[in-house]
Amino acid sequence: PPVGSAVFSGLSSPQSVVRVYAGGRFVGESVSGADGSFTVPLEGVHTGVCVFGIIGTDATGRYTALLNIPMNITKDSRSSVSGILLSPSLTISGNLLTGSAPPSASVVLFSGARRTSVMSDRSGAFSTDSSALQLPTGTHTVRAVVEAGGTVSAASLPVYVERGVPRSVPRDADLNSDGRTNITDFSILMYWYRRPLLPSIIEIERVRLNGDGRMDFTDFSIMAYHWTH
């Protein structure tokens, strides 16, 4: 079949492994530099419209959110997307929110209308106490975005902060907590299907799916039931 090539470039946290998938199939990777910049070239890509998924794994093994980019590949030519800004990684331990982003960048953590900002250090690491969000009693979804070069990233994978009551997050398969269960959530589930889960992903699976610490066919059934659009 006819083929072309593609190249993806942008920013993530320093020393992140940035992987690219086409139709759910791994097609290439690169490691970001000390400044967080990365370039992933792909050769021999089948022509036509394809949705590429890009995800980063930071130096401590935490993941960014999956970023989907549609691209039309044409024969014997190179298609490129530059200026990509991957989301921060984000985890919680106790009350401490930690993660990674491009170095010396502004990271905004938010839950609904409540938000707080912190700067990443030269290694891209950031942390803040969840009390900075001044959340009321209840269970809250917290995510983060990074601002760099006049661009704002997509939101990170969610973490959950409790204030005074047990968890009350519905098992609705809304894995990125945007209020919908759709193709974005399906992409996350496909990526982790039958793979070992990171602690942050185990937490999402526990509260949004069937809570057995795996992503398998049972979770697909839950997602299909709650599918919105």
Overall shape: globular
Order of helices and strands: EEEEEEEEEEEEEEEHHH
Helical coverage, percent range? 10-25%
| Rg | 18 Å
How far is it from the N-terminal to the C-terminal residue, by CA?
Answer: 33 Å
Instruction: Profile the largest sheet.
Output: 5 strands, antiparallel
Secondary structural class: mainly beta
Assembly annotation: single chain
Q: In terms of per-residue confidence, which ranges show pLDDT below 50 for 5 or more consecutive residues? A: none
Total beta strand runs = 15
Strand content range: 35-45%
Number of helices: 3
Mean pLDDT: 89
Describe the structure.
The protein has 3 helices and 15 strands. The chain has 229 residues and is mainly beta. The strands form 4 sheets. Strands 10, 11, 13, 14 and 15 form a 5-stranded antiparallel beta sheet that branches. The protein has a 4-stranded antiparallel beta sheet with strand order 3-2-5-6, with no helix packed on it. A 3-stranded mixed beta sheet has the order 4-1-7, with no helix packed on it. A hairpin with a 2-residue loop joins strand 10 and strand 11. The mean pLDDT is 89.
